[in-house]
Every structure is written in C-alpha cells, then in structure tokens.
Design goal:
Elements lengths: L19 H9 L4 H8 L4 E2 H7 L5 H13 L3 E6 L5 E6 L1 H4 L2 H27 L2
Antiparallel strand pairs: 1-3, 2-3
C-alpha cells in the first residue's frame, strides 16, 4: 500500500487514520481507476484491450493507474512468457469486494445520464 497522507480530517468519531470515505476514494478515486475496475468486473483484461476500451487514456497513465491498483492489492498482473509478451489483469479477492460498489456507481451514472438528457431536452424545448 502506498504511503498516503490524510488531509480531509475526521468523518465521525476519533479515528486517527482520518475518514474512511477518504481512504476509499484515495484507493479508487480519480478519472481512470473506477473505469479500470469496472472493466475488470467482467473478467480478465489484457493491456491493449484497456487501450481500446478507454481510448482517452495515455499508455503512461494506464500503466501508472494499473501499478497503483496492483500495489493496493486490488488487481493482479500476470505476465505470460511468450513472444510477444502477453500481460493480463484481473481482480484479486480484495478487488472483488468492490464489485457491488462499482456496479452501483454504474447504475447511478446511467440514471444521472438519463436525467441529464431529459432535463437538457426540457431546457432546449423551453428556449
């Protein structure tokens, strides 16, 4: 696990480690980690598959995010000694504990997109 700095204070109680929500967001937060974890809920994904699934991410950023998720124990990286080398990523048991959260985030995002589209269409009709 990386050396993290608590910065948001305490949520409730007197926890010396800071807010548990802060800890969760530190591990899975950011633009890409949740998306990476979402794609892994469907099973093993190869590095180049991630590049196709997430065309907006640079190779450097993808590598960094995968390394951090691996360092935090959420994903497993398996290198196959082939030519060319093949690298596959999958969720660890700890990573699988996030599936319910990730799928709930997907459901919320779908609902939000529908509401935003509806509200946006209603605003456009009122102009």
């Amino acid at each position: 696990m990386r050396n993290r700095k608590a910065g948001y204070g305490l949520c409730q109680g007197d926890n010396a480690y800071g807010c548990p929500v802060e800890a969760t967001l530190d591990v899975i937060g950011g633009k890409w980690k949740g998306v990476i974890l979402y794609h892994l809920t469907g099973g093993t994904v190869r590095f180049n598959e991630f590049r196709r699934l997430m065309p907006g991410i640079t190779q450097r950023m993808l590598t960094l995010q995968l390394r951090e998720l691996e360092s935090d124990g959420l994903i497993r990286r398996e290198v196959f000694q082939e030519i060319p080398p093949r690298v596959e990523y999958s969720l660890t048991d700890l990573g699988r504990t996030l599936e319910e959260i990730i799928l709930a985030m997907r459901a919320w995002g779908e609902k939000y997109q529908r509401l935003s589209a509806r509200d946006g269409a209603a605003e456009d009709a009122g102009r």
